[in-house]
């Protein structure tokens, strides 16, 4: 579809740089549609407008999602869906839990105990109005990034304003379960590999999915994070362990001692031997000394 700007030039909305692979999407499926079991590559909230669908996941095992209800499947979780009737839905995909403020997220995590059995949340009238309006935009060919950005902010407001901490605990604790386990996996295994590809493979993820989940949990690119940890560990081993410089060099994948020396000079301003000569007190000893001094 083409429209025209004020100057009369033809514009293709599908080629506009503001067009977007929608973070908020509308979908409709016929009865019998089956989405096979798969691992979520993003967090996804499914708002069912019409029909009924059978959802099967750890959180919603054998649950029938009905019109006027919604659920969240967290990044890294597995789920499958079967349409029991013709269905219509609006879905919101996102990486970071940005639908309400971080402080409230932490409060709910710490203070609010979620229900033992998760059930879909009800779509209140205010949210239904939002979803119907979103559907009207999303079924057209003209989709603008700025418009969808506003719609995401509106959704955040509705969830935060009209749903209780107890309601939102279902979403918060679901997100936390997967991000926490992913974080544990990364912290336990990042030293066992040398590349992002190897770490992704170790966890059974494609590289694209792994990068997306990592950004959601750690809020920075995985390569940048791995480099920071690598530098921290090198400094620690040079200052606080008895491993030889050669052992540390080859442990962290350097091809030669000159290569390792150049890396240290570039990143720390001195050679490996210079770092080793720094008289530092190991962290655990520092704490003991402070306690004794107190």
TrEMBL record:
SMART domains: HTH_ARAC (SM00342). GO terms for molecular function: DNA-binding transcription factor activity; sequence-specific DNA binding. Pfam families: HTH_18. Residues 180-278 form the HTH araC/xylS-type domain. SUPFAM superfamilies: Homeodomain-like (SSF46689). InterPro entries: Homeodomain-like_sf, HTH_AraC, MarA-like, Znf_C2H2_type. Coiled coil: none annotated. The keyword Transcription applies. Keywords: DNA-binding, Transcription, Transcription regulation. It comes from the Bacteria. The keyword DNA-binding applies. This is HTH araC/xylS-type domain-containing protein.
